[in-house]
Design a protein that fits this description.
This protein has 146 residues and is α/β, with parallel strands linked by helices. Helix content is 46%, strand content 25%. Helix 1 links the parallel strand 1 and strand 2. Helix 1 crosses helix 2.
């Protein structure tokens, strides 16, 4: 099936790197637009009440995330994808990926997974699993070769 618009959420992990490789290859084969997205969720600390990070720290974290997206965009371009853009989303990763994919009419989401099982999966959950369950378009899950 020729894809027109592919979303590849990344968290800068090895699983994401593999997903970008696959997404770039599919974009080349279909002459599709490829959008790399990172979901930024600033950490909130709890002592008694929730404590948010100072705005200057959040700005620094956003800057680092944007620099990472720019570097991964260069990688996708080196892999042959010609129409590559990036976006930084904010919020819950699975919810934001699904919302963005639906809102911007993506044909496909290519997402990496860590392949955790057992207790690690129970405690850490699976963003890719949530995306598979809730996305409005097809989702291709790329596993690391561990």
């Amino acid at each position: 099936m020729p894809w027109k618009k592919i979303l590849c959420p990344i968290d800068y992990s090895e699983g994401s790197r593999r997903a970008v490789e696959v997404a770039a290859r599919l974009a080349v084969e279909s002459n599709a637009e490829l959008v790399l997205a990172n979901v930024f969720s600033p950490p909130i600390y709890y002592v008694v009440e929730p404590i948010a990070l100072p705005p200057s720290v959040v700005a620094d974290l956003v800057s680092v995330a944007e620099e990472g997206l720019a570097a991964w965009k260069l990688e996708a371009l080196k892999l042959g994808a010609t129409r590559v853009s990036t976006t930084l989303l904010r919020g819950d990763p699975a919810q934001e990926v699904c919302r963005f994919a639906k809102h911007d009419d993506f044909d496909l989401v290519v997402i990496g997974t860590h392949g955790r099982t057992g207790l690690k999966h129970v405690f850490l959950g699976s963003i890719s699993e949530k995306v598979v369950r809730h996305a409005a378009c097809p989702v291709l899950v790329v596993r690391t070769g561990d």
